[in-house]
Each structure stands twice: as structure tokens, then as C-alpha cells.
Specification:
12 strands; 13 helices; alpha/beta; 5-stranded mixed sheet; 43% helix; 324 residues
Length: 324
Amino acid sequence: MKLQQLRYIWEVARHDLNVSATAQSLYTSQPGISKQIRLLEDELGVEVFARSGKHLTRVTPAGEKILEVAGDILRKVESIKQVAQEFSDEKMGSLDVATTHTQARYALPETINGFMQSYPDVSLHMHQGTPMQIAEMAADGTVDFCIATEAMSHFNDLIMMPCYRWNRSVVVPKDHPLAQVSRLTLKDIADYPIVTYVFGFTGRSKLDDAFIREGLDPRVVFTAVDSDVIKTYVRLGLGIGIIATMAFDEAADHGLVCLDASHLFEASYTKIGFRKGTFLRGYMYDFIQKFAPHLTPDVVREVQACNNRAEVEEMFANQVLPEL
């Protein structure tokens, strides 16, 4: 059994069983990958992939277990490389971060700018997706860090740490009747069509919970994953917008008024996470602290030493987080 063979089956699975695409991504030949997979299967005595003719059709039950172990092995190998690189050059490497549009657009720019100035020889790659996609990328090792508000709790292999809390505002055109209301109520909002985030995205669940508790049935007429898209359709008169307060820029969002709604909805918490067992290089600890100053390297190491998620939550239970 060769490490290269494990990498081939892992990458083939990641490329939806497309051997040709896998070969292109690894800069090797398709026949070479197919041959090595066959040699591995012959050695193991089981098929990793089921086939129809020359085409791979699915991962076998045995293959699923083998791929799970192969993924762990490949991540350990990557950690060994990271350890060696940390001692050879602590300011050179790469960092992959997965997050949502709202975080990338409004919460992260200052952190990214400061980090790149401190570490010009570190290649930083930003991946955007839904909270579920983001958590999956961190869980399978595609990225080093995930930053999001929802879906993180579904992945037990992730170490999650709270960064900051945030709440919502209602955005309306300047001539909208709600612009004259001094203190909004949920009933005020429910009287108008609503444009907001897709369910399961950027704290949407807290919004829905608030209306349910009041027995209100809001008319959500349009949803999007992008705060800027939501504001665009508010300008068009499609409805009133409910967005993260940090996503309103008074200078850029001309024609709109931002109305505080933090008293109507429970605060949400954005977290940063990484897979258990990940070796964090010095600049990775620094990135975390630049984004969330209370998460010092010592605090992160203490979190890494926790046995379960409950212990992590207990660590931060009485801490007042900054608000964006």
C-alpha cells in the first residue's frame, strides 16, 4: 500500500468519481490513476469503487470506510509537513479559510489586510459557500478554518470558538412608512413583504423563531445568501429587508435607511472552527487572534485540550463577546 494510492482514491472521491478531472488536478495521467487504484484494491481484496464498464459509479460500503481512514492518514501527513515547515520557515505557507459572503464582505477585510501585511509570504485563499458547505470543507480538511454562524454544530470533528455577537436591522427606502417609526415591533415588520437571508444562512433561524413566538406569519417574498443582493431588491420595492447590522454601509447604501431591530431578535454568534487534530502554525494562531482578539494562542491551546464541545462552551459561558 502506497501513500500515493490513498491520495488517488481520496481525490477521485472528491472529484465525484471523475478520474479524468482528478488526473488534471494532480497533473498526472488518467490510466496511471486507474492502474494504481486497481493495484490497491487487489492488495486489499475489496473494491473501493463500483464500476460499470470502465466508469466508476459509486463508492462501495467498504470504500466508504477505507476513504474515511485514508482521509485521516492524508491529514496526518499534511500535519507532518506543517510541523517541518513551521521549524524551517515560520512565516511562509498557505492558509485556506471558508466563510459566507457577509463575513467575507463585512467582517473579515480588516483582519485579512492586517494578516497579509504581517505575513506577505503566506498565500491566503478564501472559499465562500453556505454554512453547511463551509463546515463540510473544514471537516474534510479542504480548508484550515471555517467562519460562520450556523450549521457548525452538526460536525462533531470541528473545534468551534465564539468570535463575536451580532444582530439585525431592517432596511427600507427613505420614503417608506417604517422609516418614520421610532421603535419597531415584530407586528410592524410582519405587515410588509420581507426580503432576507435563505433559511439556515446567516442567523436566519433566530429571525424565524422570533416571529413564531409572537404567533406571527411573516411574508418572506424573496431570499438570498448575499446581503448586497437583499439591499438591491429592497431598492426595487420588492419588500423591506432584514439583514445583519454589520452589512449596512451608510456611505455606500444610499437611498436606504437602517432601522435597529436588535430588541426584536435574539443575538447570533459567529464562530471560527477547525478540525480536531489540526496542527496550527504560528501564523494560524495569529490569524485567529486578529479576527477575535480574545482568542489568544494560549486560549486556543486550552480549547484544543478540551475533551468535548461542552467543555469548550463552558470556557466561554460567562464571557461577554464583542458586538459587530
